[in-house]
Design brief:
Blueprint: E1 11-16, H1 20-30, E2 35-41, H2 45-55, E3 59-61, H3 64-70, E4 75-78, H4 82-94, E5 98-101, H5 109-122, E6 126-128, H6 136-146, E7 153-161, H7 178-194, E8 200-207, E9 214-222, E10 228-234, E11 241-248, E12 251-256, E13 261-266, E14 276-279, H8 303-319, H9 327-346, E15 350-351
Parallel strand pairs: 1-2, 1-4, 2-3, 4-5, 5-6, 7-10
Antiparallel strand pairs: 7-11, 8-9, 8-15, 9-10, 11-12, 12-13, 13-14
Helix pairs in contact: 1-2, 1-8, 4-5, 5-9, 7-9
């Protein structure tokens, strides 16, 4: 895609972290037609060069500080290793840029709060990449919940599990481990459908090795309403599996990570009196790509969902409003991960530390 001419209303975009996820998100952004691809930054010159060639960024930088100070950017995507997310996003916010930062945004709730406060002070939009909220089946599930199809939510059973992690995802110093990698996705989903912050956590963790990341983790959450959730994540499964079961006073709902289906049984909606599988059409929930988009739509199953969240990011910037997934949402997830790690280490139930 040529970026020599900026189309009217396009957001001038920079990228921090030009590896695979940064390039996937850039391709997804291209499907929206909402962005002009200006510059990318990565200390790995090969990764930055690939982003220039495949995504259409004009100028590569080895240091994102130079990019932020020298380029006329409106917004930045931050897609680095977990430990680098908050410092890079904070630098972009302090430079006056709107920021889309990959989850989990930070390693701790305290660092997440610093980023949120900085964005509020700078008057810029801050969005966090909890993509599952934009997947068609999850969007239908949430609509059914909001319409009262299963009554009051009382119990949630959910998980996000995969096989053995390697590379930096196996390094605790770099924010590795399944809890921060995929566990935060399922935690965001649990908090989203519960509609309230967590109150207390009790966790069990099996560690991969002494001083290493977790192999498996399972925890119970108690909410102020008395509702309960049981959540697990891990890297010992022979495959990938994610699920979300929601039990209410008038029925139940289920979705799965790799599925475009919703399963429902309802005592209040006649069409769903019996357990029913609904095939959710992608096109009904996610707009198609713009003509000529520089994106390999067949290369990754999530690219249209990423495109939907980046379309939302651009719309929030244009309209001067909060995004549908805010920094505050990500902080609430991190408040629970903090409690899970503490409870898993001490063997005690932990009150979730919440701040306004």
């Amino acid at each position: 895609m040529s970026t020599a001419t900026r189309e009217a209303g396009q957001t001038r975009l920079g990228l921090i972290g030009s590896g695979y996820q940064g390039r996937y998100l850039s391709e997804a952004a291209a499907t929206t037609g909402a962005y002009e691809f200006v510059a990318c930054a990565d200390p790995n010159a090969e990764a930055a060069g690939t982003a220039v060639r495949t995504c259409g960024y004009r100028t590569p930088y080895p240091d994102y500080a130079d990019m932020l100070s020298q380029e006329p950017l409106d917004a930045v995507i931050v897609a680095t290793t977990h430990v680098q997310l908050q410092p890079a996003a904070l630098a972009a916010v302090e430079a006056g840029k709107h920021v889309f930062v990959e989850k989990p945004m930070a390693l701790t709730a305290a660092d997440g709060r610093k980023l949120v406060a900085a964005a509020r002070q700078a008057g810029v939009r801050l969005m966090v990449g909890y993509t599952l909220r934009f997947m068609p089946a999850r969007r239908l599930m949430k609509r059914l919940l909001d319409e009262g199809a299963i009554g009051e939510v009382r119990q949630i059973i959910a998980g996000q599990c995969l096989g053995n992690l390697g590379g930096w995802l196996d390094d605790p110093a770099r924010g590795g481990g399944p809890l921060l990698y995929v566990g935060t996705h399922v935690l965001d989903q649990v908090l989203w459908v519960a509609g309230q912050p967590a109150e207390r956590v009790w966790a069990e963790i099996n560690w991969k090795s002494e001083g290493g990341v977790e192999a498996e983790a399972m925890w119970t959450i108690r909410f102020p309403s008395g509702a309960l959730a049981q959540v697990c994540t891990g890297q010992t499964m022979g495959g990938r599996y994610g699920w979300l079961d929601i039990l209410g006073t008038a029925g139940r709902l289920r979705t799965e990570w790799e599925s475009h289906c919703v399963w429902i049984e309802s005592q209040v909606v006649d069409a769903y009196r019996h357990f029913t599988q609904i095939e959710v059409p992608v096109d009904a929930y996610i707009p198609g790509p713009v003509a000529g988009a520089c994106a390999s739509l067949a290369s990754h199953r999530y690219i249209r969902a990423w495109g939907a969240e980046l379309a939302e990011f651009a719309a929030a910037i244009r309209e001067g409003r909060d995004t549908l997934v805010t920094g505050e949402d990500a902080v609430r997830v991190l408040e629970v991960t903090d409690a899970v790690f503490e409870s898993g280490s001490t063997g005690e139930a932990v009150a979730v530390e919440r701040q306004p």
